Every structure is written in structure tokens, then in C-alpha cells.
Amino acid sequence: MKKELLNYINCPICQGSSFAIKEDENNDGVIKEGKIICLKCNNIYKISKGIIYLFEKISDIALKEKESHEQEIINDKKISNFQDDNWVLNYPHVAQMGIDDRSERTGKLISENTELSLKKFITKDNSVILEIGAGKCWVMSMLAKNNYCIGLDILTMMPIGLEAGEIYIKNKNIFFERVSADMIKLPFKDQIFDYVIISSSLHHSPDLDKTLSEVKRVLKSNGQFVLLNEPYQGLLGSQERARAEADFKSGLNEKRYTIKNWNKYFSSSGFKIKIFLPENLLSILKTKGWIFKKIALFLSFPLFFKIFVPPFKLIIFQLFDGYFNAVLQKEK
User: Fold this and answer.
1) Does residue 311 form part of some domain?
2) Which of 124-128, 292-296, 315-319 has the highest mean pLDDT?
3) pLDDT tens digits, 219-252
4) How many other CB atoms are found less than 10 A from the CB of residue 239?
5) Those residues with Cβ within 8 angstroms of residue 183's Cβ, 6 or more apart along the chain or in another chain
6) Residues 153 and 275 in one domain
């Protein structure tokens, strides 16, 4: 953590914005160990491994999910494989040790959609960007070179949480802040971010209305909320939905919503909405069987894609499980 972060945060208990810092370890201006004290209510928030922990209490659902993820890593007999820097630096492009082929394929598709979407939606350099659900921080690592970035998550354990961010910072000569907090109570000042990004994580929220309200609060008046790789469910089931249902039973908050339900949440929160199919739709179709591969080949001609995909977008969203991107603008 750098002292500059104090310009953006507030106390999650009293909303005070003045803090004293006690540094136990400082490496070239980066506070690795220490604490900050709110000068309004005197609550103390620790800094450990460069991560600041800015919460009073994590919601029960989020805490249960955090514990489930961490227990899964502790129980994994191949945990030593995940400690390799190259695995983190190349995630999710390379073969993931100890992960099945389907998860690996999904990871690569999500990575491709993310890279294409960031180029399309994040159009201003020198922006102040918050990523909620930053996890391993691989999205932050793509944006931090030209922007001031803050990654937020409740997960901190290597290699699934914010501690993994240190590997990007060390190896890529970049810096971004890491904040451990709950997405239903963001510890930031009002109207402070140009962009808020969530990739594959909003459906984990213990309270969608609260999360969306908080995102709206911290966005600047002309700011944008960018959603990437967010799952939705159609009328037809899928192996991915069955897996999500199994994860939900194991303690992970893997909820699924229809596009209609997503739109209701977005509209009721006061956002203007534009929902998009994934930028790598053709790559996704090629993984779905020979019929879809033929469709992908047909749509690979730009004219055919432009003619046929937009009219069928609603049908795709209604029938098939999948992922969507969205850009949400605050209503004035």
C-alpha cells in the first residue's frame, strides 16, 4: 500500500476520511506491514503483505465463501504447483496444473474475452479504476501500466487471492493497490472512480441491490461500470450450470440469473444498460460441438456476422446458458 491510497478510502464504520499511519515495514514507498487508524472513530485497519484490510465485519455469505475457497486450496494435494510465479503470470492462458480440461478451456475463453473487451470499453488512460472481485489480480495487471488501479476482494490467500498480485507487481514493474473488503460495503469516497470493473464475480454478491448501489455511489457522474464474463442462465441447462449448483451446495455463492432478472436489478439501481454478447463469440461456438463449429465458420465472414448475430442476440440470451458483457452508465 502507498500513502496515495488514503486520498480514495474512507472508514467503513464511520465514513471518516482522515487517517494516521503506523509503518512497520516500508520498501521504496510501499507499506508492506503496518496499520492505519481512523482519526474520527479510532478504529484500526491492518496492512499485511501490502494489502490493507478495510472492513468491520464480512457478511456471513461472503465469509462462508471465503472459507470454502481457502479450505479447497489447503486440501489440494497439488498446492505446491500453484506457488510457481510463472503459473500466476501466465494465468489463465497456460495449462492450469491440477485443473480439469473444461476449466482450463473456460479460463482461456474468459481471458480472450477480457482482453478484447478491455480494449473496447476502457478507452481513457490515466483513469482511476476499481476492480471488484480482483482475485488473482490478472485483470489489474493489464490495466495498471497506464492507470491508477485498486483491486478489491475478500480472498487474499495465494494463489487465489490478492497476495498473488505481488507477483505481477514484482515481475511486471507495475503497481496497483489491493484492498480486502466486502463488495456490499465499499470503503471508498463518493464519486471517486472513472471505471468500476467486475469480471465473473457480481453473481457472487450476497446482496445485489447493495453492491449495485455501492458501485453507483463510488462512480464519478460520467463514470462507467463495466461487467465482463458474467454468467447468466437460459431456458436450456448446461454442464456449467450443474457445476455451479454443486459449488453452491459446497458453500460457494454461485448464483445464476436470467438476462431478464439482470436487467431488472440494473434498472432498479438507476443505471442505463447496454448488454453485449462476448467479444469472442466465435471462439466460444467452436467449443460447443460440430453444429456450432459450422455456425462459427459461417459467421466468421464479417458481413454475415453483422447481419445475423444482432437479431438473434435475444434468442441466444433466452435459450442458452452463457456469459455476457455490459456497460452501465449512471442515470443523471
Assistant:
1) no
2) 124-128
3) 999 999 999 999 999 888 676 777 767 766 666 7
4) 9
5) 62, 132, 133, 152, 201, 204, 205, 211, 214
6) yes
